[in-house]
Model the fold of this input.
Amino acid sequence: MKAMLMDRITDLSWDEEPLRLVDRACPVTGPGQILVRVSACGVCHTELDEIEGRTRPPRLPVVPGHQVVGRVVERGPGADAFAPGDRVGISWIYSACGRCKFCLGGNENLCAEFQATGRDADGGYAEYMAVPQGFALRIPAALSDAEAAPLLCAGAIGYRSLRLAALRDGESLGLTGFGASAHLVLKMARHLYPRSPVFVFARSEREREFARELGATWAGEPEDQAPVRLRGIIDTTPVWKPILEALRNLEPGGRLVVNAIRKEDADKASLLHLDYPAHLWMEKEIKSVANVARRDVSEFLELAAAVGIRPEVEEYDLAEANRALVELKQRKIRGAKVLRVGVGS
Ligand SMILES: [Zn+2]
Ligand SMILES: [Zn+2]
Done:
């Protein structure tokens, strides 16, 4: 089969061919695994982090890609959850132990044996991929392959962050930073909590304008004081200062959810300005988001189909993965980038 293989850590700013197109043997399905013929695979910022060594795969080479849509073509011993031809999606979570308290409690994203698709195991930048059947998810019919692929990552994590904010309808929500994930969260919040006003803190006027178009009650600068205190705030910025601003904007007992894989060190010193009475006292909480559980992905896909959340998609052939990655790095973003692999819907 054809695959785009990552065999080294490199820097995309000068190396524009980080992945190599290879012909390699099809994966063999182990017990409980299914073989999926890939039709579409989303291209994510996390692939840049893997290639540039910020989220290093434990072993190289590896096939990247964790927003995978395809059809079941083969079942390993004991794998009977799907029939050949069934359409499935595979997200960042590739497997977990299934026995620990986190797995048993539906938080398998926190399992010590958590394995990531396309980092710890071969992913979807290939014609075929094998996966434990319990980690392949059905995709609502309303979504095409190329539409579903990009929803498997940013949307699902956004959904988890909104779930962790634990709002009730009518309670106010803040969004700090307004990128791909946050704008999906705004759409979800409008649907799930129709009476909740949403306040968006974003650096650029274009983002603030977009937030208002999507139904935000108010949009301001990250340093602004929101007109009311907020019950929950979701931070998707890569820096620290907005954490303090957000804590200041929380109401007593409010919760800040930090949806970021890592924070840059550049402005870490701003945390020294933490003022306990202004920022933390009155039972304010801070919670981070790590990965996704299967429930987040499944529930988000259903929600996306119901609400009509459809990403704008820009398609590339599998062999053009390097160009897609370089354009992502250079922020040439028209829509979510998706690799077309076979003949899908
Ligand atoms: Zn991703
Ligand atoms: Zn576990």
